[in-house]
């Protein structure tokens, strides 16, 4: 069986093509989903990719959460479908209430674009089983609103439940609380991260192929549950 992974395109999405390519490179079928779609075409997992959905008006992700396809994603996520939000996708998942907290303006108020080392803090999520906990991976970061914030209580909960999935290694690029680069929901099926694993799937075009592990992990998770 081949896993089928949906990749959503909103007006203003940039990274859907690379996300689909990463899915194929990892051995799954990439299925295009449009923001207006009212069904998920039977996919096994969904990626909400990066970019500037609806021009980032109001707040990053604030309009995308009202797209018809997001109702479907919320419904499927509630039944355990693996969902990955990358950068703008992470912002959308927070706005939609699938992940807690918010992504706010970078501490330095500048857009940051650089290759970034991350530490894998939890390899027990649907998107990280192919990594060792404590592994350091190098993938691109490119965002203006990447500073993760949440209440003290929520941060303690995330920490206590092992839901901080990735942290920034080395210096913190945006002032994220607890150096958070990515988190998961309670079940570990929904993960969001600011840096871009889909841009690091082969040494020729990215800083590494370290990002592929997320896509392999999701495929393993889908195939294990059939
Ligand atoms: N690369 C992205 O997805 C960018 C996300 C968002 N538009 C920001 O600047 O924070």
TrEMBL record:
Location(s), subcellular: Cytoplasm
InterPro entries, sorted: Class_I_gatase-like, PRibForGlyAmidine_synth_PurQ
GO cellular component: cytoplasm
Active site, per annotation: 87 (nucleophile), 196, 198
EC number: 6.3.5.3, 3.5.1.2
Pathway membership, UniProt: Purine metabolism; IMP biosynthesis via de novo pathway; 5-amino-1-(5-phospho-D-ribosyl)imidazole from N(2)-formyl-N(1)-(5-phospho-D-ribosyl)glycinamide: step 1/2
One Pfam family from the record: GATase_5
Function: Part of the phosphoribosylformylglycinamidine synthase complex involved in the purines biosynthetic pathway. Catalyzes the ATP-dependent conversion of formylglycinamide ribonucleotide (FGAR) and glutamine to yield formylglycinamidine ribonucleotide (FGAM) and glutamate. The FGAM synthase complex is composed of three subunits. PurQ produces an ammonia molecule by converting glutamine to glutamate. PurL transfers the ammonia molecule to FGAR to form FGAM in an ATP-dependent manner.
Subunit description: Part of the FGAM synthase complex composed of 1 PurL, 1 PurQ and 2 PurS subunits.
Protein's name according to its UniProt entry: Phosphoribosylformylglycinamidine synthase subunit PurQ
Organism name: Gordonia hirsuta DSM 44140 = NBRC 16056
Lineage: Bacteria, Bacillati, Actinomycetota, Actinomycetes, Mycobacteriales
